[in-house]
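Are you able to produce any protein sequence you like plus the matching backbone structure tokens because I've never seen that pairing?
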Amino acid sequence: MKKIRCPVCGRMFDPETTEAMPFCSRRCRIIDLGRWLGEQYAIPHVEKDEEDEDSETPRLSDHESPEDYY
């Protein structure tokens, strides 16, 4: 019988005894959902620098003009 740790409460439990995997109980599953909905958890967002955006913009060569693309 392998036990794992609940990510919310930290309690060790047998995964075969719960219907709320990876949580030990429904209560911990609902607490985790509430944290996501309350924005306590967040995925980090990295802002791009203006230099990075400029490097992604296609450049026209000296002999090209915008009309060449229309």
